[in-house]
Amino acid sequence: MRIGELAEQAGMTTKTLRFYEQAQVLPQPARTASGYRDYDETSLARLRFVRAAQGAGLSLAEIRTIITVREDQGPPCGHVTALLERHAAALDERIAELEATREEVRRLRDRAATLNPAACSEDGVCHVIPTH
Questions:
Q1: Integer-rounded Cα radius of gyration of the chain
Q2: How far apart are CA 10 and CA 125, in angstroms?
Q3: All residues at 6 or more sequence positions from 16 whose CB lies less than 8 Å from its CB, including other chains
Q4: Fewer CB under 10 Å: which end of the chain, C or N?
């Protein structure tokens, strides 16, 4: 199938498909005698995998390593599990950081309710956020 057909079936643009070829997550297709890309049915399955993997937070570089493992060693389940474990740990860390930030923002908001704007000094920007 041609690139436009594949793009339509995958719900993507032809520009995205070309980008995925460059990123090596979609293999270079065969070419017709007139030079058009000629994709087979496995390309659609690959694109669905790429989209699902991105939905799980994996980068194109990580997806490329999964594909490489699959092609060189067989089922990449262990590799995928390790990637997902690292992503889960990073998300846990980021969530903890965001929760701490939320608490600080709430503390500052509560502080703001007790301050008089007229008491804000000329040499500072805003006394709601203390600099000392």
A1: 25
A2: 52
A3: 7
A4: C
pLDDT 10s digits, 30-47: 999 999 999 998 999 999
Side chain identity at 11, as an amino acid letter? G
Over residues 79-128, the pLDDT tens digits come to 999 999 999 999 999 999 999 999 999 999 999 999 988 888 888 788 89
Rounded Cα distance between 48 and 52, Å, is: 6
Find out whether 114 and 121 touch, Cβ atoms under 8 Å: no
Residues constituting the chain: 132
Name the DSSP letter for residue 30. Answer: E
What's the CA gap between 17 and 29, in Å, rounded?
Answer: 11
Residue 50 to residue 77: CA distance in whole angstroms: 15
